[in-house]
Design goal:
single chain; alpha+beta; 1 helix; 5 strands; globular
Length: 65
């Protein structure tokens, strides 16, 4: 998995914190696709409307970073 992690600035999304748990949102590059989401809730979005969950292996790799 190719993952680039960075903190999310307010310009990228409406908020810098997760609406579910208030954790800091991060931006990742998942196989060439930019996703923004919460590592704690495992909620990720491309467009701010539809949310996906990362597979356990990918989430573990993120947490290891």
């Amino acid at each position: 998995m190719s993952v680039r992690v960075s903190a999310v600035s307010g310009a990228m999304v409406d908020s810098t914190h997760c609406s579910q748990c208030n954790a800091l949102l991060i931006e990742i590059d998942l196989y060439g696709e930019r996703l923004i989401g919460c590592i704690e809730c495992n909620r990720w979005t491309r467009d701010g409307w539809l949310f996906i969950h990362l597979p356990d292996g990918d989430l573990e790799a993120l947490r290891a970073d």
